[in-house]
Hints:
By secondary structure, the chain is α+β, with helices and mostly antiparallel strands. It has a domain at 145-211: Homeodomain-like (Arc Repressor Mutant, subunit A, Orthogonal Bundle), CATH 1.10.10.60. It contains ten helices and four strands; from the N terminus they run αβαββαβααααααα. Strands 2-3-1-4 form a four-stranded antiparallel β-sheet, sandwiched between helices. A hairpin with a 2-residue loop joins strand 2 and strand 3. Helix 7 (145-163) crosses helix 9. The longest helix is centred in the N-terminal third of the chain and has 23 residues, at 4-26. It starts with a helix and ends in a 12-residue tail after the last helix.
Amino acid sequence: MIPADYLCFQTAHRELKFSISCYRRMEKVIKNMVCPRCVESVTSVADKLQLPVDNVNIGTITFSRDLSADELQHLSDKLKDNGFELVSNRNEEIVSLIQAALIDYLDHLEKEKNPAKVSAFIVNRLPYNYSYISNLYSREKGVTIEQYLIKLKIERVKELLDYHKFTLSEIAWKLNYSSVQYLSNQFKGVTGITVTDYLKAKGRKRISLDQL
Length: 212
C-alpha cells in the first residue's frame, strides 16, 4: 500500500506543476522593453485591445486568463507597431528575461548600499540555477552575462555624464565600481575613448539599451 503522505505529496506536486504551467501561459515575454516608458507603452497597447492585464513589468506582461489565438495575434501586431516583439521561443524568452533582470539590476546597484551579486539577483528572478542561465545566455547571444552587464553600465555612465550633475567619483560610487580608475579603464575598453574625450565630443552617441 502506498503511504497516504506520499500520495498527498504527489498530488501537491502535480498541482504545483499545473499552477506553474498555467502561470507561464498567462505570462508573456516581450523584447525591447528597457524602461518605465516601455511599460507604459505596452500597458496602453493591451488596454486599447481590452485585454485582461494583471501586471506589466520590464520584459513581461501577465494576464488574468489565457488569451485566445486571435487576441495573441492582435497583441503581437500592435506590439510590433510600437517597436516591441512578443517572444514565443522558450530560449528567447529566458534571454529576454535575463536582460530585463539586468536592467533592473542597474537600478538595484544605484539604490542599495549593499547590492546583491548579479548572479544572486538573477537567480532570484528566474526559476533556474545560474550555471544554466549563464550557459544559455552565452550560447544564444555570443557574449556572457557579465559582458552584457558591463555594456549596460557604460551606457548608464554616459547618461549620468550627460546630466552634468555628477562627478566621475560619484558615478563610480553609484554604480558600485571599486574605483574611478576601474570605471575609466572599463569605459575606454568598451567605447574606445576616454571619459574626458567623451565629454569633449560634440553629438555624443549613446546606444539604446534594446540595441546592446
